[in-house]
Design brief:
The chain is mostly helical and 287 residues long. Helices cover 79% and strands 0% of the residues. Helix 1 crosses helix 3 and helix 3 packs across helix 8. The longest helix is centred in the last third of the chain and has 27 residues. The protein is globular. The two termini are 23 Å apart. The model has no long low-confidence stretch (mean pLDDT 84).
């Protein structure tokens, strides 16, 4: 496929809009359903969306020699989803989304501990900037340091663990297989608490849940399409436009307006996260 950074950026910005709408539908659904149930619907609908690709590839393409690593990646991703969805239900939309997108700040440390990869020198000053931004968002001295905010940060850490596991899996596993096993593990895992937490959604909520699945699937497809036209190091920082879209949606739907410290913190996290994505891509090209 031709190298076209402008087209890639367009796809990624469009995916960011879809992911912002996904977060908004999750937040809206969580006001009426247990967030554990919303996680289940998100996982199950994502697995259903994969069906056409799975049918085309056949069962032979799903055989793996790394079931343990798939299980670890799936549980880390599911735990990240639980933390993120809880944060979405209790924090401003843009704040919860931004904390989840802090994952690139944690990836270098997890990759260093797990894979033995050195932390790039260019990130040794960028990452502390990102952590200052997180501190400004959490505002520990002003009561923002609450369970929902801490779980938002935990979502970023767990997402980083899942990303590093995916990097390890990509050495031998195709993308479809990785996504399939995550869908199965997250769907089965999120189904476990349903006997104790199930609430039958109203007809309007079924529409909202369907919109959640459509937006999430569309976002993933657009993101994948974008990275087909240009590498992550070149256009990956555009993923942070999801924070801008989330802030606009949060203001339009819920009247959410972030304070000055949170806005300043968001800018620092976006700056540091964008640099982390670019440096990781540059490091891969050098190896």
């Amino acid at each position: 496929m031709e190298h076209d950074p402008r087209r890639a950026a367009g796809y990624i910005v469009a995916s960011a809009l879809m992911f912002a709408l996904t977060g908004a539908t999750v937040k809206a659904a969580s006001a009426h359903l247990p967030y554990t149930e919303v996680v289940f619907f998100r996982s199950a609908l994502g697995l259903v969306a994969l069906a056409p690709w799975l049918i085309r590839g056949g069962m032979a393409g799903l055989r793996t020699d790394h079931p343990g690593l798939h299980l670890f990646r799936g549980l880390a991703g599911l735990a990240a989803m639980y933390c993120f969805f809880y944060a979405l239900g209790h924090l401003e939309l843009a704040t919860a989304v931004l904390l989840n997108y802090s994952a690139p700040l944690f990836i270098p440390f997890i990759a260093a501990l797990w894979l033995g990869e050195p932390v790039p020198r260019a990130l040794r000053w960028a990452i502390p900037i990102g952590f200052v931004g997180i501190a400004l968002i959490l505002q520990p001295g002003r009561g923002m340091l609450e369970p929902a905010a801490l779980l938002g940060v935990a979502a970023g850490v767990l997402a980083a663990v899942a990303f590093v596991a995916v990097r390890r899996l990509h050495a031998t596993e195709p993308t479809t297989r990785i996504v399939f096993y995550f869908g199965v593990i997250s769907t089965l895992g999120s189904a476990l608490p349903l006997p104790w937490t199930w609430q039958t959604p109203d007809p309007a909520l079924w529409t909202l849940l369907a919109a959640m699945g459509i937006c999430a699937t569309a976002g993933q497809l657009l993101l994948t399409r974008g990275y087909a036209y240009a590498p992550a190091a070149q256009v990956g920082p555009f993923t942070y436009t999801v924070v801008v879209f989330s802030a606009v949606v949060g203001w339009m739907v819920w009247g959410e307006v972030p304070g000055a410290p949170a806005a300043a913190g968001a800018l620092l996290v976006i700056l540091a996260g964008g640099l982390a994505i670019r440096e990781r891509g540059a490091a891969r090209r050098r190896t």
